[in-house]
Amino acid sequence: MLDDFLVRAALAAVGAALASAPLGVFVVWRRMAYFGDATSHAAILGVALALALSVPVFAGTLAVALVVAFGVARLSGRGFGADMVLGVAAHGALALGLVAASLLNGPRLNLEAYLFGDILAVSRMDLLVIWLGGAAVAALIGWRWQALLTSTISPDLAAASGLNPERERVILMLALALVVAVALKVVGALLIGALLVIPAAAARPLSSTPEQMLAGTATVGVVSALGGLWAAWTFDTPAGPSIVCASAALFALSSIFGRVTGARSV
After folding, report:
1. pLDDT surpassing 60 at residue 85
2. What is the four-CA torsion angle of 252, 241, 126, 108, rounded to 10 degrees?
3. Which of 18, 57, 180, 255 is deepest in the core (most CB within 10 A)?
4. Cβ proximity of 104 and 51 under 8 Å
5. How far apart are CA 124 and CA 130, in angstroms?
6. Alpha-carbon gap, residue 74 to 3, rounded angstroms
């Protein structure tokens, strides 16, 4: 079954969607969309460094994403505006990665595959990395679910309950770096932020509890992944952007439905 490249692509898309869902709900609740963009744009620098050092691309991407995530978190609020730090990190990391990629010896790096994804070229090893990475993200968020919820609602309440809000933020950054490394092959560095935000945003108008939003986010992500892949195969469009377009269409539908029904969201 895995010899069929379309089956591998579908499994990769579903795996990336499920990996993004647990983190996506917190990205939306905490308004971390630009933080996710800054971390994902750094993936290109991670790719270039990984190829230059002859280490796995997943390892290079994960390492650089972690460095950028923790660097942005450290600088924000220390005399620098959060939006300014995120802007510098997002554009600076992407530009530095593109320059580093152009300086690599040997055959030219196919930057388009890393910028917008190359899901149809997913290998069995890529599938293993995506699903293991997704399982790690799910386990991490599941382990700290209640603590993360409490610190998201109120850091002061979390501290009064004996929790450490800063530790929960570190856990979210670790999960974010893992998702960036996992989803790079599926939608590319420029669209990972959309994979995190749009399914969660689409599920929000239809959810009245955090658990419902998590389930809805996973459902929207999987439907978008398979629908976008079908559209890419049918209309010969890029797979990564097609998946994001499918997510955006579901977001529009859920927003209209939520307004018409007057549903209360979390």
Report:
1. yes
2. -160
3. 180
4. yes
5. 10
6. 45
118: DSSP letter: -
Residue 80 DSSP class: B
Phi first, then psi: give them for residue 190, nearest 5 degrees: -75, -15
Nearest-CA neighbor of 222 among 27, 26, 13? 13
**Per-residue tokens: 221:** 């992500």
Task: State the sign of the Cα–Cα–Cα–Cα dihedral 202, 203, 207, 209.
Answer: negative
Contact between residue 131 and residue 73 where contact means Cβ atoms under 8 Å apart: no
Residue 2 banded pLDDT, cuts 50, 70, 90 = low
Paired with 124 in beta bridges are none
Residues 38, 45: Cα–Cα separation, whole Å: 12
For the chain, helix (H) and strand (E) counts, in that order, are: 13, 0
Q: Give residue 201's pLDDT band: very low, low, confident or very high (50, 70, 90).
A: very high
pLDDT digits 0-9 by tens, 161-189: 899 998 998 899 899 999 999 999 899 99
